Amino acid sequence: MVTFVDINGFEEFTKYTETIDSKGPPVLFYFSGSKLPDGRSWCPDCVEAEPIIKAFLNELKKTVIFAYVDVGDREYWKDKACPFRTDSRTRLMVIPTLIKWNGVQRLEGTQCTKRELLQMLFEEDD
Prior knowledge:
about 130 residues, alpha/beta, five-stranded mixed β-sheet, cytoplasm, TXNDC17_dom, Thioredoxin domain-containing protein 17, Thioredoxin-like_sf
């Protein structure tokens, strides 16, 4: 069973990470550009990856927490001082990025659209 969490911005992300139970289910963070009025991200790669990841999650037969993190608008994200880029816990270079919390596993950019890589990331603990 997948539990979905929506996180908006760096401050909410930081607060959420402080509540993660190390004995609880694995937490995966999906970092994406903020949504435009039409419901799609300003980031074309995020628009491409999101339905693939959601379809994969709908088939997943394990307990995980999937946290969708809105990194902000294009201008904010492109700033080299953006905290999602500079924070040692995230160190994002591109979006979309999918990170398994407290692990080294991550998928970046077009890797997020590859089902076999998603499978490997989600089954790492088995």
